[in-house]
Amino acid sequence: MQNVKTGLNSIVKYLSTKKEVGRRRIGLLVDGPNVLRKEFNVNLEEIRDVLKEYGNVKIGRVFLNQYASDKLVEAIENNGFEPIICSSDVDVRLAVEGMELVFNPTIDTLALVTRDADFKPLLSKANEHGKETILFGVEPGFSAALRNSADYVIILENNKMNFYGEDFYTNAPEKSQHPGEVEAIPE
C-alpha cells in the first residue's frame, strides 16, 4: 500500500503546480459498482485528500446500486461523501448528475472515479464548456477512450499509481500505450 500513498503524494504535488489563482471548485462523482470492489481496493479518502490539495471538493457523491450493503453506505457517509442509491441504472443517474455539474457555475472542475467508457461524452461535454476534468481509474479494464478524454488521469493498478498528463505526453494515442509511473516524494 505504500506505493499508492507515495504515488498520491506525487500527484498532489503535480496537481498543486497546476492551480490557477484561487482554489478550484471540484465536483467529484464516483461510479460505485464499477470501482468500489474488493479486488480494486479503491480508497475514497485518499482520492478526496488528493483533490483537497488541488481545490475545494464542493460536491462528493458516490453512486451505488440497490444492492449496496448498509456497511458500504455507512463507510461512504463516514468519509464525507453523499451516497446516491439508484434503483435503476447507475450510469444514467451519474451522467445526469455530471451534466448538472457541467452547467453549475459554482463548479469549475469535474472529477470522476470510473473505468467505464460510457462517461466519455460527459468528459467531452465538460471540456467543451470550459470545465477542467480529472479522472481516477482502475486497471484492469480502464477504457483507453475514457483516459484520453480527460485533462488529468490517475490510474490505480497493482497498488501503484500511474499518472497520464499533458506534461508527460504530446499526443493522446501515446497516453494509452505508455504509462508514466510517478516517483516517490520524500515525506
UniProtKB/TrEMBL annotation:
Pfam families, per database record: NYN
Domain NYN: from-to ranges: 25-157
Example of a GO MF term: RNA nuclease activity
Top-level division of the source organism's lineage: Archaea
Cross-referenced InterPro entries: CHP00288 (IPR002790), NYN (IPR021139)
Identification of the protein by name: TIGR00288 family protein
Organism field: Methanomethylovorans hollandica (strain DSM 15978 / NBRC 107637 / DMS1)
